[in-house]
């Protein structure tokens, strides 16, 4: 049994090349295709099992989430706590098909990585301009969106927009400025005296907008965007009152791409407030291999995340760690 600490996971994910990332993306997309296909299969025929997650709110107000799933070759459960104060923490336990515990992994970095990787599926299929990117939020999710976008696309300019300070991004940008000398990295904070005018101007210039916050208010009104096509992703909302964009922006494409129709219709505030129905959604797992996105209007993607994503990524990391001889081995568990 292998234990992967946060630092082991950072080492493994930090060493990914563009080619490694594309290989991982292709495998991940196939997993989501199996998920989308599984709704048409009898339970006994499915390779993917994704029951609903369970949550417990303790007397102290800490929320524990239990996310079970199986991809047949691995079965697992992620248990994370959203504490009243501080960052989400927890672990992913991975079991062999017949029940041996094969790995225990720190969940925080994997969660941010797999969500950002899910966004990279439609981002990679999107054929439009990707040179100027705006990111709302300065946490772990924002960090991985930025790192993966730089691995997969030719980016001229990235602006992070955040509520308070630069968060994790200040330090990240220092490193990225030397690794990507041709790319411009900026931070715009809400307390900037010219915030609204600057936000509108930057959004007009942007080709891609990644939203990575638990906001309950849209980050901008639809009027801040012109008719130019953009890629817009949303990963932050997970409750009916949460929203990162308004209904008009949400509906600004031919359809809304999602990771899971079932999950998004119950959890994504933007979709619930805009009264979106299932027929307006397309799961990225329903996009056949070899397809490129040639939509007119914006390409909007909402992801609420699923346990199968964690078990898939945890299993991949365990294989990568064996090759690189990383982690703590526990024999005779
Ligand atoms: N879809 C999925 O599968 C999935 C998976 C994991 C997490 N998430 C969600 O993704 C979001 C970001 O996660 P993270 O791990 O990056 O969190 P994080 O490290 O805590 O960062 C959160 C970021 O959001 C900003 N923020 C917090 N509350 C806000 C509000 N009310 N309005 C505007 N900005 C706000 C914070 O700004 P300050 O620096 O000013 O505090 C910070 O920049 C969260 O909503 C989280 O629940 C989604």
TrEMBL record:
InterPro entries in the record, alphabetically? NAD(P)-bd_dom_sf, ODC_Mu_crystall, ODC_N
Q: What Pfam families has UniProt attached to this entry?
A: OCD_Mu_crystall
GO cellular component terms attached to this protein's record: cytoplasm
Q: Per its UniProt record, what PANTHER family does this chain match? A: KETIMINE REDUCTASE MU-CRYSTALLIN, PRNX PROTEIN
- What name goes with this protein? Ornithine cyclodeaminase
């Amino acid at each position: 049994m292998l234990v992967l600490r946060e630092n082991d996971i950072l080492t493994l994910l930090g060493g990914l090349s563009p080619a490694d990332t594309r290989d991982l993306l292709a495998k991940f997309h196939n997993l989501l295709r199996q998920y989308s296909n599984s709704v048409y299969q009898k339970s006994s025929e499915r390779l993917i099992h994704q029951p609903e997650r369970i949550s417990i709110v303790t007397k102290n107000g800490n929320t524990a989430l239990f996310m079970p799933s199986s991809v047949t070759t691995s079965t697992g459960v992620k248990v994370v706590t959203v504490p009243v104060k501080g960052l989400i923490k927890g672990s992913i336990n991975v079991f062999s098909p017949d029940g041996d515990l094969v790995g225990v992994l720190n969940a925080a970095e994997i969660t941010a990585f797999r969500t950002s990787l899910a966004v990279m599926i439609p981002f990679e299929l999107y054929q439009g301009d990707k040179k100027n990117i705006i990111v709302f939020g300065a946490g772990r999710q924002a960090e991985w969106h930025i790192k993966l976008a730089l691995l997969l696309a030719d980016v001229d300019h990235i602006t992070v927009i955040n509520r308070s300070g630069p968060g994790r991004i200040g330090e990240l940008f220092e490193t990225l400025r030397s690794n990507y000398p041709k790319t411009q990295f900026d931070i715009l904070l809400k307390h900037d005296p010219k915030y609204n005018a600057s936000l509108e101007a930057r959004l007009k210039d942007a080709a891609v907008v990644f939203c990575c916050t638990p906001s309950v208010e849209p980050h901008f009104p639809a009027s801040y965007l012109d008719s130019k096509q953009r890629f817009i992703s949303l990963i932050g909302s997970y409750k009916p009152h949460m929203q990162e964009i308004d209904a008009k922006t949400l509906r600004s494409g031919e359809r809304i791409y999602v990771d899971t129709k079932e999950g998004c219709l119950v959890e994504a505030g933007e979709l619930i407030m805009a009264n979106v129905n299932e027929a307006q959604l397309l799961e990225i797992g329903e996009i056949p291999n070899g397809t490129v996105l040639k939509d007119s209007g914006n390409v909007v993607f909402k992801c609420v995340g699923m346990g199968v994503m964690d078990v898939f990524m945890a299993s991949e990391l365990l294989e990568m760690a064996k090759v690189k001889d990383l982690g703590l081995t526990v024999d005779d568990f």
